[in-house]
Amino acid sequence: MFVPSILLKQLYTHGSLTKTEKGISFALKNRLKDATLKELKWISLDGEKVATHKITLQTSKDSHISVEELHKNKGMPFSLRQTITVHVALDQAVSPEKRKLGICFSASPFGKLKFEVEDNITEATKRGGHIPRDDLDDYGSAMIQARQAYFESATGNKLNHVAKYSIDPNELKGNIEHFIGVAQVPIGIAGPLTIHGEHAKGDFVVPLATTEGTLVASYNRGMKLLNMSGGVTATVVDDAMQRAPVFIFENARGARDFVAWVKQNMDKIREEAEATSSIAKLTYVDHFLSNKFAFLRFNYKTGDAAGQNMVGRATFAACGWILDNYEGIKNFYLESNFATDKKASQINIMRTRGKRVTAEATIKREHLLQVMRVDPKQIDYHGRVAGVGSFLSGVNNTGLHSPNGITAMFIATGQDVANVSESSAAMMYSELTDEGDLYVSITIPSLIVATYGGGTGIGTQRECLELIDCYGKGKVHKLAEIVASVVLAGEISLASAISSSDWVSSHEQYGRNR
């Protein structure tokens, strides 16, 4: 299996070349995929190969294996995100000067791999600042307690709540570094909400994590109203996740010709990208030319994962092949800020990032009057006035407060909360029917959710996903439909409160307005 040189060098942990009592050491971290390290062929320092008997591999705090034992055992597992510390019995001085470190090995399923990096040798005591950490066992109880004690000493306060938790810290690898405890956010429930989706079908009681008074009550009131009129219809209409590299050329003509070459080689670029994952599927690549820059926006399907890391790895591999096969590229960056990761943007509103999902309902006039004490004409008129306010402000959301429900569900279900930046965009639309009822619809063009991977498998987060039957593979479109439906409930509830002047009085009753 071909691995681009730019991707292969990512196996080395930069800054890990360290002087030890018996020589030097450095760290290798598997950032490709689950593999088996079959044979260590050689290690070199400044072009000089090191005798294999001077090399030892450390896979955990108490587990060391020599090169001879590695070969005798016909290899050892090297799983994704696993770190191996390589110890080399060479007496070397600490120096700010860069040294050339080379390594050649064979691993299944990649075959023979070799690369060279530059790094300087540092003192072990100078690595990582003052926070206690252990490269090989950073989630063990001893190291966690050491960090807790350090934090208490540094702040002069006790960890009375943060240090109490029910999750297994060893399951947090890949989720957090320097772990000391948890932040507890209150969770309330709203519903049931009747949803007529293609994936979410039935009644759902929804967990909402928040510290904002009235939020759960408001959403619950909106759900009651929607149920009285038959519930919500929800539809996922698009699905895409992006990474947007930029390639820099001598001039604009070079950038233009490069884009033509990319189009001609799309099959190979897709092959290289998809080789990094059994899930990621490259659907298409947009191109945008400006000055002497060629911006490529890779678009993927990512299954039930949110997929930012997945598409980053896939695009990195594809770009590695491009760099190895196209001459004239002066510079390259994996992310050009054009995917607008964790940022609201017009391109994501137009082109989709995550799931593009619409929730809609027709609410009977008598139900609005009965539950909300407001006539459909009042909400419709207020919506048109608010549309002018939206235009004047340049906001990315013509609704009222969709990020409230989205954030509360994100925290409860283990989503990446920073993705509320993109997911906050929404297009709200309403109209009066011939019968005097109110049709309402909201489209969320860049809702980034996951039901597998990331933080979805941790303790309370997994539990909340399981409560709405949205944990695991094959459930992400269902979750997207539920989120959009909850958002619609919140929109109609707040719109009614503002139109009927109940907004402030509700906060006085349920919130913390004092």
From TrEMBL:
It comes from the Bacteria. PROSITE patterns: HMG_COA_REDUCTASE_4. One of its GO terms (molecular function) is hydroxymethylglutaryl-CoA reductase (NADPH) activity. Residues 7-122 form the Hydroxymethylglutaryl-CoA reductase-like domain. Its EC number is 1.1.1.34. Keywords: NADP, Oxidoreductase. Pfam families: HMG-CoA_red, HMG-CoA_red_N. GO terms for biological process: coenzyme A metabolic process; isoprenoid biosynthetic process. CDD domains: HMG-CoA_reductase_classI (cd00643). Belongs to the HMG-CoA reductase family. This is hydroxymethylglutaryl-CoA reductase (NADPH). It comes from Alteromonas australica.
